[in-house]
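Recall that a protein's primary structure is simply its ordered list of amino acids. Everything else, from secondary elements to tertiary packing, is in principle encoded there. The following example makes that idea concrete.
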Amino acid sequence: MFPGVVPFPPEFAARYRAKGYWDDRSIASVWEEMCSRHSRRIAVIDGDTAITYEALNRTASNLALNLFDLGIRPRNRLVLQLPNRLHFVYLYFALQKIGAIPVMALPAHRHLEISQFVRQANAVGYVAADKARDYDFRVLARRLQSEQPQLQHAIFLGDAAEFTSLEELTVRPASRDPGELEKIAIDPTDPALFLLSGGTTGIPKLIPRTHNDYVYNSRMAGSVTAIDDGSVLLDVLPISHNLPLACPGLQGFIFRGATVVLSTDLSPEAIFRLVEKHRVTHIHVVPALLIRWLADPAISRFDLSSLRVIQSGGQRLQPETRVKCEQLIPSVTVQENFGMAEGLLMFVRLDDPVEVRRETVGRPICPDDEIMLLDDDDNIVPFGDVGEFCCRGPYTLRGYYAAEDHNRRAFTPDGFYRSGDLMRQHPSGNYMVEGRKKDLINRGGEKISAEEIENLILSHPAVQNVACVPVPDLELGERMCACLVLNPGNRLSFEELIAFLETREMARIKLPERLLILSELPLSNFGKVSKKKLSEMAVVHSVSRQKPASVRA
């Protein structure tokens, strides 16, 4: 038993094994099988570098042995903060070979978030790129190690300075016998990695994804997305996210013997050029990214006819965007999916009727994905009514890591995960998103906790009360508006608020983009702050980041 991880109940585990959902194999063993079976095929392309499956396995094994030599052991946790580069793939595979557990941080995270992840996971290692624009992650590593002595290892891609070089670890011939990796026993019910929640409680929770459930997750996602051995995925979303990593993502394409092209450049022309050059067949997107690409005139200058599936997730894609995409790229089907790092995945099937593909976000990928739509009293709503989407199944977690109190609120007594999403079931059997119950702002697919930002703003001495709400946005879906009540006699400009929040060293994507200053926050009939009313007011009265002053309403 892994301390802090809520296991699947024995009767459910037995059922999932009996039905063949769980193979009781480690992720590494499946990757190794694919590397042996497809040894001469190209596995991953990064810029001008293309590596075969055989080379991928060999390099990852060498890196694993060198990490083992450093002292990395099974069940050790390491916070990973790497971009979409080949060394991410090597490292992810190497850690799976050791049985060490990556915590999948995002490139945008800064001290506020990374320090929390290191503490929550009791991580012994931190792996990152040296710099991103003007931010130096080596400075962050020095600070983390001074604050948390258990963080023994800091490993960097690029200029490692006084730390360990990831490139050097990758290419240096290992001094250990490769047979040492074969002796490592990995429990398939252990976490293979920790993903991050988009939780509403301020600090993101760690999501333990076991070897059993994550292998099944990728295989089933690959079964409904038309992947064959000639498929080529262009992976451009941050690869630490569940979708580009494993839904089907990098892992799902590897499981099919296909090819993955990595890119950190999201500009339309760079994407179109890669599609044409590598005959890309699949891309994962969030709606804001797809909208940006479709609006760029360069789309007509490239041969995009190899594209078959553009898979959209993170937030609802408007039917008009889907129609425009399929008109501009006639070879493409835009496939909507709804998923969560916590587990359950729903996909619109590629052969669903057109009206179903345009109106819904799909249906579950496993026959044993159980779904309930519940009202506020935990009653199942009648068919066609809106309710909170609750689920359990063979690849949906039974509890967040080391979060016993939170788990009592986040799960029903019989183990259904309360997603916070409001849905209704379509007559076809697919599902339609109707909003959410959880207090999140969905900015281009990134789920931002309103409570987290509210708590930070409340620490400003001029602020008496605050509520952060979503404001509709054509490009990103939603942007955040901070609605403030100031202490008597105080003033606070937008620029001053942003400057204050920047001192908290948080990811910039979490900064409010609108400001509304009020004399009081509107209340609902039940005496709670009415965020619905605030969102409506913010559309009319708020000031955006580009403007110099706040307003009073």
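Residues 340 and 534 are 27 Å apart (CA to CA). The chain has a mean pLDDT of 93.
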